[in-house]
Design a protein that fits this description.
695 residues; four-stranded antiparallel beta sheet; 8 strands
């Protein structure tokens, strides 16, 4: 016991000393810096250097009033003074005034809402800006905001990323901590032993600390998905702790070290195969291109191994000091009651099959490409601000770099006319809110009274000078044969996948006599991410089922039992994913890993049941072996599924929708997995026994 306590204290000290729990969420958090999906985005940045930017929608009753203009000017000047903001573009700093901006082909779509209820401010951010920049921006906005008279709402990827990071930090502190407390209380209530509850929690927390410490040593920081890794590791430990404790309580009269040793020997084999299955599930994510999924895969592999080690090296020590109470679950051997129980199992089992079949159509309509707005709670300031910006010009940037099919320079009058036609064609696409391009900029420059004296090439050259902020270099490359179109895409009205929309836009480019050389922006990255999430779900689950089928046979040494286990396990992801689609729940990158967690819960129960069947003489003893296996493992399955469902229930009330979806899916999955293991699996096993005898 002393060695065990010293080890836990040492791990806790190292964790507190070296592990940074602040999630790192960057504007390109969808992918890692070395991913091929970011290669085109990097190439666009090399051709057309630009900074990240914040957007402010500033609403008022009358945006054309002098009072509004003066207040807008003061707010713009205050923003420009904030360290880290390199340039501010607003109606008060760009065009002559609001009325002039409303008539400009360049400024109108860029800075004025469609209904003239607000103007937009764009604040460009230095790459080395302070992490406290968003706090300063929020303080300045709060100082000037005055209800309907001057209503400021913030948007833009840096702000969105910061809000996601804050939500993750809050959930990590609040909901993870609360879940740990709930787990401890439930364990205490179920096993009625403070020593067992303390040992289970101490082992789980040590596993969390050790996992995060190892990941820190491997150079992996807390990310958008690994923020939930702590509670996943804790659940992996508790799942095996519960089965170990249940088996320890099922033993005969032996006490002390002998009883603990027998329980460990009886449970370890099942726990080992559960760990292998869970590890393989996470390992399927390691090769995925999306950085968050890779991080979760690596963390899950480490966590699965650590969970097994802490469960069997630390927790058994606490059992030595616990008072063993015999379980109160009694299985009647009355023939009538047995018949009734089997009828109940068959009824529930067939209901689960019908539910799974009913959800199958939903698998073909999975929403793995949700709107950016789905990451934030409806009615929140960020959601409403983002929705307003989206309705008035779009909120998600998409960058298209194009050139003429036959080649040639674009700083000519014919080039200008071709670019202008493409500008209007892109703007006609229903998912495009605003198009910011060189021809719109040139059209604004051409409105000058003396502009007719200069040819197009000279106007372009003048706008390329430092005195004009080198504005052309943000749209036209040095050789003047490639041009950038910056599109602000609409999210609220989109019903098609982003990739389909992007492909259609590229078709518009081709029809206009151009060819697309590069595609980038958050809109494109989210579309690619959607494909990766879908692919990881389908291929990952298919591979898991195949591997689990092999493991099921190795555990049971009976192909009928292995088939029953695989069919039962397969219903879990089918039901969860299908029902999510049918009820319109998006499967985003944060909530998608819940499927793997639920699969692991189902696998644990099935493997423990399969080994219990072998111990009780299946298939030789037929249905008697099934009844005895259920009697032995009933407590562990019910307790494990129930504790996990209740523990994750608190996540479902999170104000961060992806976390709420993550928790809700695990709650439903845990309950479904527990019921399926106790009803559907024995039903299939009995059917296979009957078929074996009839054969």
């Amino acid at each position: 016991m002393t060695v065990c306590i010293i080890f836990m204290i040492l791990i806790t000290f190292l964790f507190m000393r070296f592990v940074d729990l602040r999630p790192e969420v960057s504007p390109d958090f969808f992918f890692g810096s070395n991913d091929p999906e970011l290669a085109q985005a990097a190439a666009i940045h090399d051709l057309f250097p630009s900074d990240e930017f914040l957007m402010f929608s500033v609403g008022a009753r009358d945006i054309f009033s002098p009072r509004y203009y003066d207040r807008l000017l003061s707010f713009s000047e205050d923003l420009a003074k904030i360290a880290g903001i390199s340039r501010v573009v607003s109606v008060a700093t760009g065009p002559e005034n609001v009325k002039a901006a409303s008539k400009s082909p360049f400024w109108r779509p860029l800075l004025i809402s469609d209904d003239n209820s607000a103007t937009l401010i764009i604040a460009f951010i230095d790459s080395n800006a302070s992490p406290d920049l968003i706090l300063e921006v929020e303080a300045a906005s709060a100082l000037f905001s005055d209800g309907e008279a001057f209503d400021i709402r913030i948007s833009g990827m840096p702000y969105i990323v910061e809000q996601i990071r804050r939500s993750l930090v809050y959930d990590l502190k609040t909901f993870s901590t609360a879940s740990l407390v709930i787990f401890a209380i439930i364990l205490l209530m179920v096993f009625r032993s403070p020593v067992i509850a303390l040992g289970a929690c101490a082992s789980g927390i040590t596993a969390i600390f050790l996992t995060l410490l190892i990941l820190q040593m491997l150079g992996q920081s807390i990310g958008i998905l690994t923020a939930n890794l702590a509670i996943i590791v804790f659940v992996l430990v508790q799942s095996q702790v519960i089965y170990l404790t249940a088996n320890w309580r099922q033993l005969g009269e032996s006490e002390g070290v002998g009883a603990v040793r027998r329980a460990v020997f009886q449970t370890f084999r099942a726990s080992f195969w559960c760990m292998v299955t869970t590890l393989l599930g996470f390992a399927t994510l390691v090769s995925v291109a999306a950085e968050p999924l890779r991080q979760l895969g690596t963390g899950g592999v480490v966590g699965a191994i650590v969970a097994l080690l802490t469960c069997y090296l630390l927790y058994p020590v606490f059992l030595l000091f616990a008072v063993r109470r015999q379980p109160e679950v009694k299985v009647s051997r009355d023939a009538g009651n047995k018949k009734l129980a089997r009828g109940f199992q068959y009824g529930i089992g067939f209901c689960l099959i019908l539910i799974a079949l009913a959800t199958v159509p939903g698998l073909f309509r999975l929403n793995t490409d949700p709107s950016l707005l789905s990451y934030f709670e409806e009615g929140s300031d960020l959601h409403e601000g983002l929705a307003f910006v989206d309705r008035n010009g779009g909120s998600s940037p998409l960058k298209l770099v194009v050139r003429l099919k036959e080649g040639g320079r674009l700083d000519t009058e014919s080039g200008y006319e071709a670019m202008w036609r493409l500008h209007n064609d892109l703007l006609a696409e229903k998912n495009v809110g605003t198009v910011i391009s060189l021809p719109a900029l040139l059209a604004e420059a051409n409105s000058h009274p003396l502009a007719f004296l200069l040819p197009w090439r000279e106007i372009v050259s003048l706008l390329s000078l430092g005195i004009n902020n080198n504005v052309v270099t943000s749209f036209l490359n040095e050789d003047r044969d490639q041009v950038l179109y910056l599109l602000r895409m609409k999210e609220t009205s989109r019903v098609e996948p982003r990739n389909e929309v992007t492909e259609r836009l590229q078709g518009i480019v081709t029809a206009a006599g151009f060819e697309t050389t590069l595609v980038g922006g958050v809109y494109m990255l989210q579309g690619r991410l959607s494909d990766l999430v879908t692919r990881s779900l389908l291929t990952g689950i298919s591979m898991l089922l195949l591997l689990f089928g092999m493991i099921a046979w190795m555990v049971s040494r009976n192909w009928r039992i292995a088939a029953a286990m695989t069919v039962t396990a397969a219903l879990i992801p089918v039901t969860l994913l299908g029902s999510a689609s049918l009820f319109g729940i998006p499967v985003d990158i944060i909530s998608a890993p819940a499927i793997s967690v639920c699969f692991g819960i189902a696998v644990d129960a099935l493997i423990h049941l399969a080994l219990a069947l072998r111990r009780n003489g299946y298939p030789a003893k037929g249905e008697a072996a099934i009844d005895n296996a259920l009697r032995d493992q009933y407590l562990g399955i019910v307790t494990s599924s129930g504790i996990i469902a209740i523990g994750f229930m608190i996540f479902s009330i999170s104000a961060f929708p992806p976390t709420a979806r993550f928790g809700g899916e695990i709650v439903l999955g845990a309950l479904f997995a527990g019921v399926a293991a106790l009803t559907l699996f024995p039903m299939l096993a009995r059917l296979f026994v009957t078929s074996l005898r009839s054969a």
